[in-house]
Every structure is written in structure tokens, then in C-alpha cells.
């Protein structure tokens, strides 16, 4: 019996071991299947193809929002609301050296701008592509102002015979709320320092002040001049004022061509030729060959091409390098998602650069109108810590680095700006609304007692007393003094010198340089080169973007949720009505979100209401 029991036990243990091995094999196969389903595939670049540059939405320095939300939007087939500028530039620069890429096609119909400074960065990359001996073609059913700026960088520009080129100039128009505030009988208490600090005018005025008109025209004209110069240089216009004449005389030009706006653009040499998309595609087919599956020319989209080149660059950042921290969006207290600058989250990135021995210099890439005073100061201290540790810090301004955006830049070893950057706006404001009169209209009254004159004085349903108003105004004056003194110290100027160009005034980069607010005018690449030189890294330096790490659990969750979204879309497709409604309401939603997220503890803000055209 013992022998039989031993044999049976041996058989059982063998079967149990085999079961465990089979379970392990099944689990491994399951994980491999899941991994294959969730892992992004690396696109294959044809041996001979055109790189199609087709940015969607606004050009940005940092994609905003939660990565999962972006994945879900993409799964639902919605247009990408943003395109990362550096992805485009990296793709163009890589393609310039790639023998597989014969030429480039600009398909700009889905782009909605992002600021002249960003478009100039991409324009320079396109010019580098052309300098490598490769041709660039642009096609559009029509071109708006921003789209045409990039199309102008092409060797040849094609326009649909029923299209148009719309260049309308730059404008800056604001919504003023005083009328509705008066009707609702809301008391908006406004406190500010700086005669040009105009953000709060929307609550206290019904129209633009003379000071704001003066400063706005100054920077608008500067940016308009940059636009015209960029287009004229790219198109080879010998005569000055071609673009200005086209935009200001558009009605007369349209009348002269009997409403044929495509013919008008051709006659003014804004485009090379009028062609349909099919005719254009046939032309490119003759150059790179036909993709019979797609019934078009052989092409690789820029997002697929970038994914392909990025896979080969993953291990290139080891060793000494420049660390880049992107500061994009409003400056708010605490941890914030990408597309917003958080005092905690951005400071953590700067601290990572401080304690990483391989980071030899830091470039702070700024695209921000400012925000919380306290959050701006917290970030400035981290920059100061980097410099004291001996690591050079170069501030590189994108389309905007105004108010708090300038505050976090001012302590850098060098400040670089584009001629079209909006910067300055050195001023402070606070807004405190009260609704006691609104409530009285509905028969609601507030009464009570307090142990001091200021007990309950900061309630929204009580009139702000004179003492509280005085405290708030003194706080604003102090914040302005701190701002100007810090700029004076950082820029090695007197308080009076800085105060003369401060007062909340917005400057274009070209004027900011003349006023000593920035050190040099140039591109993002120029700022990187300067950082490398200061760090002694030579010309072949490496660049690493310092970003919050995405752990494997978050990555797996994001990919699985995105996959679930794709399945959901197939089962319950989003109705077009809802998609259109979201697009129409997007500007209002954005404005309300911006106002709601302000969270400075003292409600004191270094913020600029300006917007880059």
C-alpha cells in the first residue's frame, strides 16, 4: 500500500507541477496578448515618401489636461485640440537628414494658430528642411492668417480654385461685464497697482481705457510687423507693405476680381497656383510614387513619423545633458496637471533638475500669462536654488511670458525671447466681489455681530468695509513693490528704471529687449545653445525634458482605458450634435475654467489678460 501511495503521490505532484507550469504559460501568453493590444505600434516609414505636416488645433509648448482624457478624445475620433510644437520641430529636423523623406507637404487646414513666436519656431525648422535641399509644398482649400504664415515658408503654395487667403491683421478685443454687473447689483471691489494693469477693467468699465488702447496698439503693431516681415521674407516680396495692402484693401481686391478670392490671391502672388486636392496629390505622386492602398501619394504623417524616430532616441539622453522644464499655462498654487503651472508640480521638476548630477544646465521654456503671486514666488525660489548650486538657468520665452510668467523668468542667468513674445506686464491686481445688493433684491438680508471690526468682513454677502479695502490695497501696493524690486535686483537696475517700464504694461519681445527686460532675441534653439555653452557641453549636447514620471500602473491604466474608450465608441458612437455643441461652447467653458481655477491664498495675482494672436 505504501508503495502504491508513493507512486500515486508522485503522479499527483507531477500533475500538480504540470498544472502550475501550464497556468504560468497561460498567464504569460495572456500578458503578452494584453501588452500587444495596449502597446503603441511603431509605424513603418516607407523607403521613399513625403512627410505630411498636419498640425491639429493650437500649437502648444505642453499638451494640457489628463493624458487619459486626451486618449479618450482621440479614441472618439475627435480632432486633436492641440499639437505639441516640439514634436513638429523634431520631426522636421529629423526628416531633413532622413534619406527616406523626399519632400514635405504642409496640410494646415486643421491648425488654429498658437502665436507668432511658436509659428516662427516651426517656420525656421521648415527653412532648415529646405536648406537641406528638399522641397516643401503647401496645399489648402483655404488659408487663414495663421495657416498662411506657415504655408508661406513652402517652395510652392497651392490653393483650391474656390478657396481664399484671409489675412485680416491683428486685433485685441475684450468682453466688458460692467453692464451686467450693474444690472445684477454686484459690487466688484478692484485693487491694482500699475496704470496699465487692465485685467480688472472688465469688471469696472464698459469699454477699453485710453491707456490700454495705447499699450495694446503698441504690441499689436509690433507683432503685425513681425508677421508681415516673416511672410515677405519667405515669399521673396521685394516691395514693402504687400501684406498690409492686401489685408487693408481686401474689399476692393475682392470687388476687382468679382468675388473670385482665389484668383485675387493668385494675382497678388500669395499662392503659386490654383489646384484641386486631387490635382495636387497627382503632382506629389509623380515625385514620390503612389500608395495604392490609400489611393494617394506615398506619405507618412508627422505623428507617425515622430513615433518612429522617438523610439530610436529613447536611450540617447544618458550622460551629461541640458534639462528642459516646460512652464505652460496659468500659474496656480499646489500640484497642477500638464498645461498648467503648479507651484508644487513645477517646483518638483526644478528640484529634480537640481539633484540630478547629469543635468548640467536648465532651460525654462515659458508660455504663460501668469497667475498666483505666491505660486510664482515659490517657483522663483527654486530657480534661485539652481543658480546657487552652480547650474546655469536660461529662460526661453515662447508666445507669452507676461506678469507671473515674467516673474519666474527674471532670475535666470539669461532671458531669451522671440521678437513676437508678449512679456512684461509687471503689475498686480486683486478682485473681491460682494453680492449683498443682489440678495436684497430677493428679500435676503445679512446681519450679525463680531468681536472685531474685521470679523466676517470678507464674506461675499457683506459690503467690504473701508478698513478691509485699505488692507487689500496696501497688500497690492506691497506686492507691486516686491515685483519691481525683485526685477531691479535680477536685472541690475534701479527701482525707478524698472518702474518706468512696468506699471502693468505689456511689451512685444523686440521692445522688451530695448527696455532691458530680456537679454537676447532668438529662438528656443538659441536658448539651448546658450545653456550648453555655459555648461561647457559643446555643440553636440543632449536635451532631456524633465516631466512627471508615468509609472507602469498609470501607463497600463491609461492604455486599457483608452482601449475601452475605443470599444465604447464602436458600441455607442458620440452624436455629432454633442460634438458640435462642445466646440461652440469651448471659448465660454475655457473662460469660466480660467477664472474658477485662480487659487492664490491672498487672491493677489501677477496676471496678464493679453493674448497672443
Strand content bin: 15-25%
Q: Counting H and I runs of at least 4 residues, what is the number of helices?
A: 23
CATH level-four homologous superfamily name of the largest domain: 2-enoyl-CoA Hydratase, Chain A, domain 1
Distance between the termini: 92 Å
Ranges where pLDDT stays below 50 over 5 or more residues in a row are: 35-39, 551-558, 564-569, 571-582
Number of structural domains: 2
Mean of residue pLDDT? Answer: 85
Helix content: 40-55%
Radius of gyration: 29 Å
Shape estimate: globular
CATH class of the largest domain: Alpha Beta
- The helix/strand class is alpha/beta
Largest sheet: 8 strands, mixed
The CATH topology annotation of the largest domain reads as: 2-enoyl-CoA Hydratase, Chain A, domain 1
Tell me the number of strands.
24
Write the CATH architecture name of the largest domain.
Alpha-Beta Complex
Notes on the structure:
The chain is an alpha/beta fold. It folds into two domains: 49-171 and 213-310, 2-enoyl-CoA Hydratase, Chain A, domain 1, CATH 3.90.226; 316-436 and 467-549 and 601-607, Alpha-Beta Complex (2-enoyl-CoA Hydratase, Chain A, domain 1). The chain is built from 23 helices and 24 strands. Strands 12, 15, 17, 18, 19, 21, 22 and 23 form an eight-stranded mixed β-sheet that branches. Strands 8-6-5-4-1-11 form a six-stranded parallel β-sheet, sandwiched between helices. A two-stranded parallel sheet has the order 2-3. A hairpin with a 4-residue loop joins strand 9 and strand 10. The radius of gyration is 29 Å and the shape is globular. The N and C termini lie far apart (92 Å).
Amino acid at each position: 500500500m505504501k508503495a502504491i501511495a508513493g507512486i500515486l503521490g508522485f503522479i499527483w505532484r507531477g500533475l500538480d507541477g504540470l498544472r502550475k507550469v501550464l497556468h504560468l504559460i497561460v498567464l504569460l501568453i495572456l500578458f503578452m496578448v494584453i501588452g500587444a493590444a495596449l502597446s503603441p505600434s511603431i509605424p513603418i516609414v516607407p523607403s521613399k515618401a513625403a512627410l505630411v505636416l498636419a498640425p491639429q488645433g493650437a500649437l502648444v509648448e505642453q499638451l494640457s489636461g489628463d493624458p487619459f482624457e486626451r486618449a479618450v478624445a482621440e479614441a472618439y475620433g475627435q480632432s486633436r485640440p492641440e499639437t505639441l510644437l516640439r514634436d513638429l520641430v523634431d520631426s522636421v529636423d529629423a526628416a531633413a537628414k532622413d534619406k527616406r523623406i523626399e519632400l514635405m507637404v504642409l496640410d494646415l487646414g486643421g491648425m488654429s494658430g498658437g502665436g507668432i513666436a511658436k509659428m516662427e519656431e516651426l517656420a525656421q525648422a521648415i527653412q532648415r528642411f529646405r536648406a537641406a535641399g528638399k522641397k516643401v509644398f503647401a496645399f489648402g482649400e483655404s488659408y487663414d492668417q495663421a495657416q498662411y504664415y506657415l504655408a508661406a515658408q513652402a517652395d510652392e503654395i497651392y490653393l483650391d480654385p474656390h478657396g481664399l487667403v484671409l489675412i485680416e491683421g491683428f486685433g485685441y478685443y475684450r468682453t466688458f461685464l460692467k453692464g451686467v454687473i450693474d444690472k445684477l447689483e454686484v459690487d466688484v471691489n478692484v485693487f491694482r497697482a500699475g496704470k496699465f494693469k487692465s485685467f480688472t477693467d472688465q469688471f469696472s468699465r464698459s469699454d477699453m481705457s485710453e491707456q490700454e488702447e495705447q499699450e495694446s496698439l503698441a504690441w499689436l503693431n509690433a507683432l503685425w510687423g513681425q508677421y508681415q516681415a516673416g511672410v515677405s521674407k519667405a515669399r521673396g516680396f521685394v516691395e514693402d507693405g504687400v501684406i498690409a495692402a492686401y489685408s487693408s484693401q481686401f474689399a476692393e481686391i475682392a470687388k476687382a476680381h468679382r468675388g473670385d478670392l482665389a484668383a485675387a490671391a493668385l494675382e497678388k502672388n500669395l499662392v503659386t497656383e490654383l489646384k484641386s486636392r486631387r490635382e495636387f496629390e497627382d503632382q506629389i505622386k509623380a515625385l514620390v510614387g503612389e500608395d495604392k492602398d490609400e489611393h494617394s501619394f506615398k506619405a507618412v504623417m508627422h505623428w507617425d513619423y515622430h513615433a518612429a524616430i522617438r523610439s530610436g532616441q529613447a536611450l540617447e539622453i544618458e550622460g551629461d545633458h541640458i534639462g528642459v522644464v516646460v512652464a505652460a499655462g496659468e500659474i496656480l498654487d499646489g500640484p497642477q496637471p500638464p498645461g498648467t503651472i503648479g507651484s508644487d508640480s513645477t517646483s518638483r521638476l526644478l528640484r529634480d533638475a537640481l539633484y540630478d548630477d547629469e543635468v548640467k544646465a536648465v532651460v525654462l521654456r515659458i508660455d504663460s500669462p501668469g497667475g498666483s503671486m505666491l505660486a510664482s514666488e515659490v517657483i522663483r525660489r527654486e530657480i534661485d536654488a539652481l543658480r546657487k548650486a552652480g547650474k546655469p538657468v536660461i529662460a526661453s520665452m515662447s508666445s507669452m511670458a507676461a506678469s507671473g510668467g515674467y516673474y519666474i523668468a527674471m532670475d535666470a542667468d539669461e532671458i531669451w525671447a522671440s521678437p513676437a513674445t508678449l512679456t512684461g506686464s509687471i503689475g498686480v491686481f486683486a478682485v473681491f466681489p460682494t453680492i449683498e445688493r443682489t440678495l436684497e433684491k430677493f428679500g435676503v438680508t445679512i446681519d450679525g455681530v463680531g468681536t472685531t471690526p474685521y470679523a466676517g468682513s470678507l464674506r461675499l454677502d457683506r459690503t467690504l468695509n473701508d478698513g478691509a479695502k485699505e488692507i487689500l490695497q496696501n497688500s497690492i501696493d506691497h506686492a507691486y513693490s516686491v515685483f519691481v524690486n525683485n526685477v531691479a535686483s535680477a536685472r541690475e537696475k534701479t527701482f525707478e528704471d524698472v518702474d518706468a517700464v512696468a506699471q502693468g504694461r505689456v511689451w512685444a519681445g523686440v521692445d522688451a529687449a530695448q527696455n532691458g527686460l530680456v537679454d537676447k532675441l532668438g529662438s528656443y534653439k538659441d536658448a539651448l545653445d546658450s545653456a550648453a555653452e555655459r555648461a561647457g557641453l559643446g555643440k553636440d549636447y543632449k536635451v532631456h525634458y524633465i516631466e512627471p514620471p508615468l509609472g507602469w500602473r498609470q501607463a497600463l491604466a491609461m492604455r486599457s482605458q483608452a482601449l475601452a474608450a475605443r470599444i465604447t465608441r464602436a458600441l455607442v458612437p458620440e452624436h455629432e450634435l454633442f460634438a458640435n455643441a462642445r466646440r461652440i461652447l469651448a471659448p465660454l467653458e475655457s473662460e469660466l475654467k480660467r477664472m474658477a481655477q485662480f487659487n492664490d491664498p491672498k487672491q493677489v495675482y501677477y496676471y496678464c489678460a493679453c493674448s497672443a494672436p
